[in-house]
Amino acid sequence: MQIDFFEEFPNDDSLSKLRIIKFRTNLYVAAKSVKEFLVLKTRIKNSYRNVAEVIYWLILEADEGYWLSAFSKTSAIKRILNELKNTNEKFSVLWDAELPILAKELFVTQLPNFFVNRNIIQETLFHQNPNHPLIITAFPKSGINKLLSSLACTYFSSGSFPYIDMLYTSLLRIKNKSGYLRSLIKRNKNKFQGYSVALGLIGRGVEDFSTPLISPMNLKMDLSIAQKEGVKNVVLYRLGGLNKNYLGVLEKFVSK
Asked: Dihedral of CA 200/201/205/211: which sign?
């Protein structure tokens, strides 16, 4: 199994965790501009030989939506797409499709631009720049949320693109987390050009620093389920939370 990492806060402390990883890995680093990403990419590739690829995890300013959806600010979406268009260097891009919960006023202020934004996003996803292939990531949805999220470009039932299913069991408030994880993987694993699973959380994110983290034992259970279901690639959120206990679990599953 290929095991990779997200890093939302690529600072000295979080990136230093790469030193304890003995296997080859890929790193998704968050940056608010192509320029910022390229500086990080060069630094990481020069400092950590175990990193095979550095992927641009594209984020916006918090008041622009932070993540990407039809409710993100139109000017921000256009800005980052223009940056990519005007960059000759080749690299993959993580398209993090989530609603702007850090700036809820955008649900109102961007409503007049909703369909303009939706059209821009759909054009981007389905007519990709070959120099910057997109990897889409989103949370699973159910019920009416599927329809609403599909309209907002934050839910994808299938697609001819690589997809990372964010299945963070530490966030769930249900008893049968293993059954939930297994059923979602079974449902989605053959619906995309390339299917990966994001597991965790082993570190907290920007939205809530009281979010519960997964235990090493439960991480082992989640990895076992993913492996049994034929998942070849897992991405951990996030690198900065890595410690020897988590690493010991990962080393049991990583491809030799």
From this structure: positive
Q: What are the tokens at 122?
A: 């759909």
Q: Give the bridge partners for 198, in sequence order.
A: 166, 235
Identify the sign of the CA torsion 189, 194, 200, 201: negative
CA-based Rg of the chain, rounded to a whole angstrom? 18
Gap between the terminal Cα atoms of the chain: 8
Q: Is 54 helix (H, G, I), strand (E, B) or coil?
A: strand
Measured between alpha carbons, how far is 162 from 230 in angstroms, rounded to an integer?
16
**Whole-number Cα distances in Å, 178 to 53, 159, 218, 247:** 31, 25, 9, 21
Each residue of 32-56: pLDDT tens digit?
Answer: 999 999 999 999 999 999 999 999 9
Does 238 sit behind a cis peptide bond, omega within 30 degrees of 0 on the bond before it? yes
Question: SS3 of 243, please?
Answer: coil
